[in-house]
Amino acid sequence: MNDRCVKQKFAAEITDGEKVDDLFLLKIFEVKQKKDGSPYVRAEIGDVTGTLSCFLWGVQGCADQVTETASSLQVGAVYRVRGNAKTYNGSMQVSVNEGIADFAEPVPSTPLDPEDYLTSPVKGLDLKGGIFRMANEISDPELRHLVLEAISSVDGFFIKPAAKGRHHEYRGGLAEHTLETARIALAACDATRVGIDADRDLVIAGALLHDIGKAFCFEEQGLGFAARPEYDLIGHVTLGVSYIAPFAKRLPPEKAAHLLHILQSHHGPHGEVPCQTPEAWMVHLADLTSATLREAADDQADLAPGTGKRNGWRAGGPVWRFE
Ligand SMILES: [Fe+2]
Ligand SMILES: [Fe+2]
């Protein structure tokens, strides 16, 4: 690698067994423990051509260096990555030992070309138009205006990710997941006899607003997004309900309570409040469908054709990619 902070090799060009020494964006990371209890960092690094798993093992006996390095890592920053590339379970990953020293601080952002690093699978999709068109399907004008105003008033709704990892974790992921959830929930409403008696407007509104709390969980950092403390300290469900509650005061009390219930219960049996109406179930199941399909597809995309693995990193179950 030269010293001019110019990328020479891109993620998609890296091959099995290759020595890596180049610049990559740190997308996400987590500190994990080896069997002997010593720490390592599992990260996702990447550039405009793709994403790689990266493991910061450090040097044997230097657990403190791993801990210290992890405490200063900045998601959204670009780091020099020196390590060895290896295909493992069908996915390319980079192992870093001595090169952990380069993670002590990111490379300066000034000479970097953001175009080398920024990418999103939803780039070019008209998610904003899709969401506004979906909101305009709401026949009750009061509820329709509430949804449009609530979404438009949130900073960065259309560019933020939907999660730190697992699904829709990229730029625009929140908008894509929101639109998918609304489309699936509405399809369930329109496809079933249950839907005849359901409040179609509330299904659309609940789906479009179900994860609005996530817009308060992320902020732009460097070339990416970092989770704010509220992500873990409060949680997006509570943040969303708190944000929508004042808007909901404009609605008749029953409708307001139903809308807030859909938001509060959208994690279904896994959440604090279980779904108690068909409309809430439609949004919960649509949310789960959108998230699970994205996880399964992204786990599969990590694999080489004709390979599988027992535990996809995102969905957590077995995954296979046919030739
Ligand atoms: Fe959610
Ligand atoms: Fe969601």
How does the overall form come out from the CA principal axes?
elongated
Could you name the CATH topology of the largest domain? Hypothetical protein af1432
In total, the number of strands is 9
Strand content: 15-25%
Say which molecules are bound, naming each kind only once. Answer: fe (ii) ion
User: Percentage of helical residues?
Assistant: 25-40%
Counting helices, strands and paired strands, the structural category is alpha+beta
Number of domains: 2
CATH level-two architecture of the largest domain: Orthogonal Bundle
CATH classification class of the largest domain: Mainly Alpha
Helix and strand arrangement:
Blueprint: E1 19-33, E2 39-47, E3 50-56, H1 63-72, E4 78-88, E5 91-96, H2 127-135, H3 141-152, H4 173-191, H5 194-197, H6 200-209, E6 218-221, E7 224-227, H7 230-233, H8 236-248, H9 253-264, H10 278-301, E8 307-309, E9 319-321
Parallel strand pairs: 3-5
Antiparallel strand pairs: 1-2, 1-4, 2-3, 4-5, 6-7, 8-9
Helix pairs in contact: 2-4, 3-6, 4-6, 4-10, 6-9, 6-10, 8-9, 9-10
One fe (ii) ion binds at residues 177, 181, 210-211, 287.
Explain this structure.
The protein has 323 residues and is an alpha+beta fold. It folds into two domains: 11-116, Nucleic acid-binding proteins (OB fold (Dihydrolipoamide Acetyltransferase, E2P), Beta Barrel), CATH 2.40.50.140; 127-300, Hypothetical protein af1432 (Orthogonal Bundle), CATH 1.10.3210. It is built from ten helices and nine strands. It has helices at 63-72, 127-135, 141-152, 173-191, 194-197, 200-209, 230-233, 236-248, 253-264, 278-301, and strands spanning 19-33, 39-47, 50-56, 78-88, 91-96, 218-221, 224-227, 307-309, 319-321. A hairpin with a 2-residue loop joins strand 6 and strand 7. Helix 3 (141-152) packs parallel to helix 6, helix 4 (173-191) runs antiparallel to helix 6 and helix 4 (173-191) packs across helix 10 (278-301). Residues 211, 236, 266 line the site of one fe (ii) ion (FE2).
